[in-house]
Amino acid sequence: MAGSMRDWIEKWDGLGVVVHYDAPSEAWFYVALHDDTLGPPTGGCRMKLYAHPDDGLVDALRLARGMTYKWAGIDLPFGGGKSVIALSRPLRGEERVETLLRFGGLLQSLRGAYWTGEDLGTTPEDMATIARATRYVHGVKKPGEPAVDPGPYTARGVLAGIRGAAEHFLGKENLAGVSVLIQGVGHVGEPLARSLAESGARLILSDLDSERARGLAAELGAEVVGAEAIDTPCDVFAPCAVGGVLNAETIPRLQCRIVAGSANNQLREDGDANRLRDRGILYVPDYVVNAGGAIGLALLGRKRSDAEIEERIDGIREAILAILEESAERGEAPVKAADRRAERNLERKAAALAE
Ligand code: NAD
Question: Which residues, including other chains, have CB under 8 Å from residue 105's CB and lie 6 or more apart?
Answer without folding.
Answer: 133, 134
